């Protein structure tokens, strides 16, 4: 049945299909505004993240959320609602529809902490003192009764808490966000430890590739150091992503892994610009070629097999951390995190080859060189040494024997000129020398 010439109804009440664009939208009335007395109408073609509705189901899901939030926000019950009820019934269900499952699983711990601290308190009763005390708690050491978080993590957690109250204001549960009256926790500049080329050489010298498992660990460390891929990007690599003949590695996936048997290989990277193709050096190609042949001896190495695997299942991030710790200790170098290998790659390119910001940005999959500079600018310190060496002696010091200009200034300037002039004849004591 047609509602007009340009739209068509669907099986969902209030959801329609735009016949011109082929996309879906919702349109509904939610009742009468109690203040203005006007009808409250809602219409949208996109969800909260700005994505157009490609299916009627997606549009109906958003319409259902909008209706639920409106009715809950405009009911008397919201005046008695506790913070925990708001989080469990409103905020968290909506948040889960807006982010990836991996993101939600990471943030869930912070949400639980918010509920533990503010859960029994009425949403409207959270005051400026409560927020200030929480801020102080986040920045206080654990042995003094605080959370013991780093400043960077405390900044992240406090910002997340403020956003929960922002949502409450948007939905009209609160008139204002009381947390905005308290100063945000500034982020500290975190310097990620990394290995220099010398340290990396010491590490790989400790690995015996005659052992199948150690061979895998060697390949993992080598590829991460030589390509700078993110940990989850590397874990998601299949052999179909690597062209050994053209010496190219395609980085188009990330691995979301709950366990080695419960994982998802997502068809995207951390950012849109993260999808990239990386050139491989001959040594890396040779190492990968030999590893694939080694895998084939145990029935692996097919196009849809993981590059980093010994049994067909993906590796987990904690394994990489343990491998780094083990061989760093054996080599007598500082242990680093898995993401430290990405920083090691950046350091290697900057300090060994003085690579440009633009090239490094493209290789690392950053959306702009600004991000590269923000994270790695400290690594360029000393990178201009080679330039200084080339500058040495490039311009020969040759000055005039006599002045070619006349000064018309005052007497003091003329005196200074005379004082600074070299003697026209050698001093008495120097005659005949």
Note the main sheet.
5 strands, antiparallel
Structural class: alpha+beta
Q: Low-confidence stretches at least 5 residues in length (pLDDT < 50)?
A: 429-433
CATH topology of the largest domain: hpI Integrase, Chain A
Name the average pLDDT.
86
Keywords:
433 residues; DNA-binding; hpI Integrase, Chain A; alpha+beta; DNA binding; Integrase_catalytic; Integrase; 11% strand
Report on the architecture of this protein.
By secondary structure, this protein is α+β, with helices and mostly antiparallel strands. The chain has three domains: 1-74, no CATH class; 100-190, no CATH class; 197-380, Orthogonal Bundle (hpI Integrase, Chain A), CATH 1.10.443.10. It has 15 helices and ten strands. The protein has helices spanning 56-73, 83-98, 101-118, 128-139, 151-170, 197-204, 212-227, 231-235, 282-296, 317-331, 340-353, 357-364, 369-376, 385-391, 411-420, and strands spanning 2-4, 7-9, 15-18, 24-32, 39-44, 242-243, 248-251, 254-259, 262-266, 276-279. The strands form three sheets. Strands 1-2-3-4-5 form a five-stranded antiparallel sheet, covered by helices on one side. A three-stranded antiparallel sheet has the order 6-7-10, with no helix packed on it. It has a two-stranded antiparallel ribbon with strand order 8-9. The relative contact order is 0.07.
């Amino acid at each position: 049945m047609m509602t007009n010439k340009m739209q068509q109804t669907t099986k969902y009440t209030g959801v329609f299909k735009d016949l011109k664009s082929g996309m879906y939208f919702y349109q509904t009335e939610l009742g009468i505004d109690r203040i203005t007395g006007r009808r409250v109408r809602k219409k949208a073609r996109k969800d909260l993240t700005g994505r157009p509705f490609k299916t009627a189901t997606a549009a109906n899901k958003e319409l259902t959320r909008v209706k639920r939030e409106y009715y809950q926000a405009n009911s008397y019950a919201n005046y008695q609602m506790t913070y925990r009820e708001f989080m469990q019934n409103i905020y968290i269900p909506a948040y889960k529809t807006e982010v990836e499952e991996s993101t939600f699983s990471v943030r869930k711990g912070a949400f639980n902490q918010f509920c533990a601290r503010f859960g029994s308190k009425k949403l409207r009763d959270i005051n400026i003192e409560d927020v200030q005390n929480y801020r102080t708690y986040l920045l206080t050491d654990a042995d003094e009764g605080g959370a013991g978080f780093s400043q960077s993590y405390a900044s992240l957690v406090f910002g997340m808490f403020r956003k929960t109250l922002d949502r409450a204001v948007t939905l009209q549960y609160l008139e204002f966000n009381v947390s905005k009256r308290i100063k945000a926790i500034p982020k500290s500049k975190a310097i990620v430890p990394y290995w220099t080329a010398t340290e990396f050489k010491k590490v790989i010298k400790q690995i015996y590739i005659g052992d199948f498992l150690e061979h895998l660990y060697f390949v993992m460390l080598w590829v991460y150091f030589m390509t700078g891929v993110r940990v989850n990007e590397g874990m998601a690599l299949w052999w179909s992503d690597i062209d050994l003949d053209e010496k190219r590695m395609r980085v188009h996936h990330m691995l979301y892994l709950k366990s080695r048997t419960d994982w998802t290989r997502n068809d995207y990277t951390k950012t849109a610009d993260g999808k990239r193709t990386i050139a491989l050096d001959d040594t890396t190609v040779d190492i990968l070629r030999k590893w694939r042949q080694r895998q084939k001896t145990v029935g692996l190495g097919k196009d849809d097999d993981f590059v980093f695997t010994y049994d067909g299942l993906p590796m987990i991030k904690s394994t990489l951390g343990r491998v780094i710790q083990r061989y760093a200790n054996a080599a007598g170098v500082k242990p680093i995190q898995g993401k430290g290998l990405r920083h090691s790659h950046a350091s290697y390119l900057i300090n060994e080859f003085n690579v440009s910001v633009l090239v490094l940005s493209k290789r690392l999959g950053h959306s702009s060189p600004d991000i590269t500079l923000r994270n790695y600018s400290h690594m360029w310190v000393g990178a201009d040494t080679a330039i200084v060496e080339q500058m040495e002696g490039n311009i020969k010091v040759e000055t005039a024997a006599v002045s070619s200009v006349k000064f018309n200034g005052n007497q003091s300037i003329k005196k200074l000129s005379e004082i600074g002039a070299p003697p026209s004849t050698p001093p008495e004591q120097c005659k005949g020398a």
